[in-house]
């Protein structure tokens, strides 16, 4: 284990990006990290808002057209190795916003997250449960630790 | 020194994804010597076109879609959308269903206000209070999961009543009773410590006030309006709230202190309403399925969402939704958010925005209307 992964195992920084969801998943994720009941900080998972110090990117929402560019910029700003978690039904498949009319493409939504950036872990649910978010963060850890 | 000193006006732009903003929106603050001279909030990054998706869907499907407008006050959107259909079709709902809708609505108000308080305390820099409030909020979320089956999108109302799975049995009634007792007890302790803390009180008193006149001029709604002293609450005009006794809380000043205390006091009123509803919960069935679909004109409905007055309207044609319009309270409050920052220190600007309880995912539906029509400076 190199120095980088040694220190990374002791402080995983997650960044949360909202790309047009309904706020339900976002607050549940903040809840999972911050609130005293779930408290991911006791497992050394911290929420950060700075992409340059983040290891894990948590994306919620169906990625609106306006949010596509900022999401790519944020993804590129995160140093390697990085893991991406797509959280919620919208991030996984566009949710109710995409393709509800059948095959007519939506004018506002540019697709689920994996059409914009590569995704490593997926959390289902509408809205996601805090327990599942913690499980996804743990599942994404090996990619970060073995990379060094 | 003679001659004019040149004051440099700087623009501070935050945006769409910024560390200080918890939701995607864009703020431009025009700062002159650390004093905010002008503020501009732009929304629209979140636009998903929910009203367009609703167009042409069957009414039941469109109703459940409105729940996805906002993840904080999801229940009240569904409630209001169902009310539009019920008004148009002339459906009378059983009394028990009306009571359970009110219980869910008030629990939602409690958790929304607790989130506001926790967020406000986080912005103030007091993380301990924020944690305590998140802990209280967890009780409410568990109660909502107990009633509806999900923590956020619980989907209780349907046309003609409520979903049978959300019916309250003895166990649920007892647990809700215990839960609200716990919330009241913990929140009383919080309020006592919060108001007796001189550091916090001096930080929030008189910061970013909105006067009563300006609040009315900017069409502010909800608790933000009542914090300026205007006694206006849609719950008093809603017939389903008639059996309950509650006070409409008002505060003076419209500053951050008035806004924060306003929410705390409103939670106590909500607890009072839930307690009355649990005590007098009528027996009987929870859903009346004997209504018939017919065409209606455009029907409007208002309810009091946690953030203020919420408006839904649509017409029904062949069992499908036509011409849906949703107006959320945060949209009316955007003017106040900009106005509250002006003339104050740049460090207070975030507080000034947060005190109006912004929810930009609610707001981002119709780009045409989001053209700041409420803002008199434009």
From TrEMBL, chain B:
Binding-site list for Fe cation? 73, 362
Q: Does the keyword Metal-binding apply?
A: yes
Where do the annotations place Mg(2+) binding?
51, 326
Any one GO molecular-function label of the UniProt entry: quinone binding
What is the official name of this protein in its record?
NADH-quinone oxidoreductase subunit D domain-containing protein
Q: What SUPFAM superfamilies is this protein classified in?
A: HydB/Nqo4-like
| Native source organism of the sequence | Methanothermobacter thermautotrophicus (Methanobacterium thermoformicicum)
Q: Which cofactor does it need?
A: Ni(2+); Fe cation
The residues covered by the NADH-quinone oxidoreductase subunit D domain are 124-290
UniProt KW keywords: Iron, Magnesium, Metal-binding, Nickel, Oxidoreductase
Where does the chain bind Ni(2+)?
A: 70, 73, 359
Q: What is the lineage of its organism?
A: Archaea, Methanobacteriati, Methanobacteriota, Methanomada group, Methanobacteria
